[in-house]
Amino acid sequence: MDIGEVAKLSGVPASTLRYYEEKCLIRSVGRRGLRRLFNAGVLERLALIALGRSAGFSLDEIAGMLGTQDELRIDRHQLNEKADELDGTIRRLTAMRDGLRHAADCSAPSHLECPRFRRLMGLAAAGALGDGSDSRKARARRRRSTPPE
Amino acid sequence: MDIGEVAKLSGVPASTLRYYEEKCLIRSVGRRGLRRLFNAGVLERLALIALGRSAGFSLDEIAGMLGTQDELRIDRHQLNEKADELDGTIRRLTAMRDGLRHAADCSAPSHLECPRFRRLMGLAAAGALGDGSDSRKARARRRRSTPPE
DNA sequence: GTACAACTTCAAGTTAACTTTAAGTCAAGA
DNA sequence: TCTTGACTTAAAGTTAACTTGAAGTTGTAC
C-alpha cells in the first residue's frame, strides 16, 4: 500500500503518517522509487496510536509502549496511573459542570452575589480546578478540521 | 498596589498580569513613573478569569463576558452550552478510564487478543473518543511550574 | 511521449497562553 | 551618590502535534 491508501483507510492524513514515521511510531516497509510502501499491519498500529492518544498518552509515551518491532509492551501500572489521572480530571470536570448548571439558573441578581458562584471562584483562583485546557483544545481541533473555506 | 503585590496576592505571575492587561482582561488604574498601579478590584477579576479558564473558556471568550467595565454579563445560555460540552467530555473520559482499568487486569495473553481492548481500539481509530488532549496539557503545565532547577 | 496526480523533502508556519530575554528606567535605602 | 531590586518594553522563544508551502520527482493513463 502506498501512503495515500493508508491515509484513506485509516483516516489519518498523509502528512501525519510521514510525521509519525519520522517519530518512529510507524514504519514503512520499503520504497517504490521515492514512494513509501506500507503493509497492512500499519493500520492496527495506527489504531493503537489513536487509542493511546484518546487515553491521554503523548506520542512519546506511545512510542515507548509500541516497541520498534510489532510487539506491544504495555505496562499495567502505567495504565492504572493514567486511569487515576482520568479519575481526577473527571472529578474536576464534574464539579465544574455542576457549578455551571447552577450558575445558569441561579436566581441571585448578579452571579457575584451567589455564594455558590463565589465559592467556585475561590476554588478556581486557588488552582483547585485546573485550567480547563481540555475543551479549549478540543475546540481548536474542531476548528482545524472545518477550515473557513 | 503595584504589580508585584498583585502577583503575590493572586498567585498570578507579573508577566501574566501584563499579558492579561494587553489582552484587556484586566486594567491598571494608572502609573507611578513607569510602574502600573492596580486597585483591589483586580483580584476579584482575576478570580473570575481563573474560574472561566477552569470551566474551559478561552481568554477571548472570557474577555467577552467581562466587559471593559467592572460589570459582568454572563450569558446563561453560554453557561449551559459549556456544561453540555463538559458532559460529553466526562462521558468520553469515563469510557476511557473504564477501558484502561479493564486492560490493566485483563487476563488475555496480549492486549491485542482482548475483545474489549480491540473494541476500544476501533472506537479510538474512528475518532469517537477524542484525542485526550486534556491530560497532556495538564502535564505540560505541571512541568512548567516545576522547572528542572 | 507527455501530462498530471500523487508522491517526495525540508523548512517554516500554526495554535493558545504564556515565559523569557535583553536592554533600559527608576525609587528608595545606605 | 551609589547601588540594588523591582519594575518597564518589545520581541522572540516555548510546547505538542501537526499542517502548509515550495520546489522537485515519478508512476501511469492517455
Automatic annotation (TrEMBL), chains A, B:
Positions with biased composition (Basic residues): 138-149
Gene Ontology MF, one: DNA binding
Superkingdom of the organism of origin: Bacteria
Residue intervals of the HTH merR-type domain: 1-68
Listed Pfam families: MerR_1 (PF13411)
Keywords: DNA-binding
Keyword DNA-binding annotated: yes
Region (Disordered): 128-149
PANTHER family linked: MERR FAMILY REGULATORY PROTEIN (PTHR30204:SF97), REDOX-CYCLING DRUG-SENSING TRANSCRIPTIONAL ACTIVATOR SOXR (PTHR30204)
Protein name: Transcriptional regulator
Organism encoding this protein: Marinobacterium nitratireducens
